[in-house]
Amino acid sequence: MQRVAACKGCNPSARGFSRPTHRRPSRRSGAGLVAAGGLSSLASVVESQQFDRPMLEELFEVAREMERITEDGSECKILAGKVMGTLFYEPSTRTRLSFETAMCRLGGKVVSTENAREFSSVAKGETLEDTIRTLEQYVDVVVLRHFQAGSARIAADAASVPLISAGDGPGQHPTQALLDIYTIQKEIGRVDDTKVALVGDLANGRTARSLAYILSKFRNVKLYFVAPDVARINEDIKEHLTECGCEWEEVDNLQSVASEVDVLYQTRIQKERYGDRPEDYEKAQGKFIVDEDLMRLMKQDAVVMHPLPRVGEITPQVDADPRAAYFRQAKNGLYIRMALLATLLKGK
Amino acid sequence: MQRVAACKGCNPSARGFSRPTHRRPSRRSGAGLVAAGGLSSLASVVESQQFDRPMLEELFEVAREMERITEDGSECKILAGKVMGTLFYEPSTRTRLSFETAMCRLGGKVVSTENAREFSSVAKGETLEDTIRTLEQYVDVVVLRHFQAGSARIAADAASVPLISAGDGPGQHPTQALLDIYTIQKEIGRVDDTKVALVGDLANGRTARSLAYILSKFRNVKLYFVAPDVARINEDIKEHLTECGCEWEEVDNLQSVASEVDVLYQTRIQKERYGDRPEDYEKAQGKFIVDEDLMRLMKQDAVVMHPLPRVGEITPQVDADPRAAYFRQAKNGLYIRMALLATLLKGK
Amino acid sequence: MQRVAACKGCNPSARGFSRPTHRRPSRRSGAGLVAAGGLSSLASVVESQQFDRPMLEELFEVAREMERITEDGSECKILAGKVMGTLFYEPSTRTRLSFETAMCRLGGKVVSTENAREFSSVAKGETLEDTIRTLEQYVDVVVLRHFQAGSARIAADAASVPLISAGDGPGQHPTQALLDIYTIQKEIGRVDDTKVALVGDLANGRTARSLAYILSKFRNVKLYFVAPDVARINEDIKEHLTECGCEWEEVDNLQSVASEVDVLYQTRIQKERYGDRPEDYEKAQGKFIVDEDLMRLMKQDAVVMHPLPRVGEITPQVDADPRAAYFRQAKNGLYIRMALLATLLKGK
Fold first, then answer.
1. What is the ipTM score, two decimals?
2. Which member of A191, A341, C46, C311 lies 3.0 to 4.6 Å from A125 by CB, making a disulfide possible if both were Cys?
3. Which parts of A48-164 fold into alpha helices (H)?
4. How far apart are CA A331 and CA A334, in angstroms?
5. pLDDT confidence of A91, banded at 50, 70, 90?
6. Measured distance CA(B332)–CA(C5) in Å, rounded
7. Interchain proximity A268–B124, CB inside 8 Å
8. Do A98 and B124 touch (CB under 8 A)?
9. Which positions in chain B touch A327 (Cβ < 8 Å)?
10. How far apart are the first and last CA of chain B?
11. What are phi and psi of C265, to 5 degrees?
């Protein structure tokens, strides 16, 4: 069950789940998105496939250092004098506040907009590249949230300062995938040799897709996909996993899986994607609920994760269970974003 | 005219003007909202009734220290390394900027949203409790503005970090009441033994109501209520004052009261609450105006206060009068909010 | 070609292109808008005419110091302990982020609103003066963006803290004019003895107008106006230049001018101002394009400037030309705003 070394899917620009790329050489280092020299040569963060396993391990080490800094509580000056600009073309308050707090906790400062569409309004018609090239005159790092898949890479190519994607539409949300895998490492103590159930809206949620990809870089991971019929995982991911030698199984019964897994990763059925099919939403929403009964089936050292927000797919009674890891998972997002900012900006 | 010691209205959870509460023990300290050990054991700020008289006096002492820090002008590091998150479900720019400046002046940092509804949109359906539990993973203190009465308490119960209410709909706006009473103390030199006229929209404005409650904790305070017929003060407050032994009188003539009082507290007729009754608004708006003629009737050591914004209920000519205290009152809001933040966060 | 010493147009409050003013004496210094004692006595920034030539030279010296500070990269504490409030009545993300970064890079902090209309909503009806007098209780300097010409001066008159205009509707945008002239000085090495073509929407764009005015303070500047018929420069400016002894010429052929000038200042045709005349917009938009062909006609030491955003009036192929100065120009905006903030706040 070793992963196939040369799987194209594990690297950027491979076919299928990654758009072809024709990057002009970065003005910063000439390096591609996958940093040849490991984490220290990272130039921008646009997709989780940039991170190979040694880089992930380096990143986790930095994230642990960030935990120590945060818990220490005294003023940190690692990024004192640095300014981060957040450029959000659609609101994502939770992600924005996590990035902004990360910068603050490192001693840096933040300038911010949630109205980035105004920057390049239809009336004015500025390109994303121009917006980035303007903003980089001011700030030391750009955090971009955009509504179009592929825009993060376009922006990173245009930028001469580091850029971190905070999600690009139906595309990637790399920091979510990184914080998810970091949470598994912290909670379970390993990522290799784990069984992970991905539950809920696997068709529409990029979170579950991204996590599946990143898990395929580890050894002996078994994935269970538990989704309502209307929201099953796409074929491309299953093909990728098979190609990587990562075992997977589609299951229709959450109970049967609950006692098997180390991680139950629940996701929200995204009502906003069922606009014209409310009956499909209702059917999907109620099907797989994590409640106290289900928790009784789970192993004592397993955990429940969720990218949040949740609606009713995990009942509030579960919150008190020490295996409910979703709020700790949110905190890990802070540490991972601190680690990325520190890595990209330290010594620059 | 001593206040009745055991008045239920002066304490949280009492009947009538305070909703019944069934708090689960705070995860922070197990303490109720009224801090048994005085100001230093304060966990969150959700209503002005939390503050008994010794706590108010302690708070004023801290606020005076904040004035010294601010006037000194050099960089203050009391809250260096701390991050405040503002979570505003409705815009209140003035209050938000006051809180944010308060945090900045103490050396802390701020992350902020005025679009908090997006956090828990109808489509996504996150509960306020979940939003708070997520935000508290990032920040050291939450400032909440909400449109529903009672939400501040719900949020404070859910939070494991200190929470300060910046107003919850028609409910409480505790920091406004605290800055008002601090302004009286500063301007008049005392709160006991004062005569205070509350003027304007006493039915709809929570400001006047809150101030009346907090004044009832002091000795020998006489309150005059001067409101248009359509906006008279509610019965519950009059009952509470009577119960406390606090003297009050409803008056229809502002002139007759002006020469009596130490404090004339003017408020804006809230046009937005008269949507379907424009004639009522017009009648109420023009009735009690503070202008230069009225100022001539007032005592030389009296002051005019107003929570701002004003429309025409105090004429601009009054601004030059040294007894016009409303902009100094706004500044006191900064000091009180600094004092609360410093109290809640220092040494944590 | 010397400028006429006493031209009323070069000073504030002169007739024609500057509104009459009846300022009450500033509460800060009693000084008028033109600082008698040079840059150090500057109280507020509301229009570019406040800056005479010695003040501009002083300002440029400070801006150069700001460049050194920024490039040094270490934490700057010049404005540590100071708080800037941005009060934007209309969004202008680019300008706001430039000001906010400027304050951050000087060690100061920022509180910010893009929803300033809420401060004084129709329903509430607060005056701009009251809003300013409230905000100044909190912050050390106000940056105001407003939609009405003249509002910056009204606000500066009301303020007892320094105020900087970030543009007031069709009125002035003084920091843009200052950064433009600073860019010419840096790129060409002088402002005297230059030939400058202003191209594009000269009727609607305040940028070109402001630059023309400020250029008239220098010696032996020749201006070319190159605009489509529907967007020609207004008579008042031409009269002003003639009065100042500044040579100017209206030209219909960009090619013929390109080889002559030291600076080609391109501007965007503002589509939003052609709402009911789309055919006029189309005609104007395509008429004068800066592309690689045009660049071949230009002198080797000339530069192309643009206030940004651009649409198609400079083709992306031009960006790689070292004479393309528009992104460097954006960066100069940061330095000029840092210089103004440092000047207004240092030692206060």
1. 0.89
2. C311
3. 53-72, 93-105, 116-119, 128-138, 151-158
4. 5
5. confident
6. 49
7. yes
8. no
9. 133-134, 137
10. 41
11. -105, 100
